[in-house]
Amino acid sequence: MPPGVNDATARIAYREVPTRVLSVGDYDLSGLSILNAAAEDVAAFVEEMGGAPPNVKRIAV
């Protein structure tokens, strides 16, 4: 797991309100695949901890 991901997943898992993650990045296939993979990984870890997965939204290109 990359540095910081464990801390982020723990904060998301134990929040009492829904979490929204906003992504700003290039609109290319590699950028989209990195975002999708990270969102899936974080969601899986958060669910294992008993939390609700975050809503990930791309807001700029």
What features would you describe in this structure?
- The chain is elongated and about 35 Å long.
- The model has no long low-confidence stretch (mean pLDDT 84).
- It is α+β, with helices and mostly antiparallel strands and 61 residues long.
- The chain has a two-stranded parallel sheet with strand order 1-2.
- The relative contact order is 0.28.
- It starts with a helix and ends with a strand.
- The chain is built from two helices and two strands, in the order H-E-H-E.
- The protein has helices at 5-13, 29-48, and strands at residues 20-24, 55-60.
Task: Name its key features.
single chain; 61 residues; alpha+beta; two-stranded parallel sheet; 2 strands; 48% helix
Oligomer: single chain
Sequence of strands across the biggest β-sheet:
1-2
Query: How many beta strands in the DSSP annotation?
Result: 2
- Roughly how much helix do the residues carry, as a percent range? 40-55%
User: What structural class results from the helix and strand content?
Assistant: alpha+beta
Radius of gyration: 12 Å
Annotate the secondary structure layout.
Layout: H1 5-13, E1 20-24, H2 29-48, E2 55-60
Parallel strand pairs: 1-2
Give a nutshell description of this structure.
Helix content is 48%, strand content 18%.
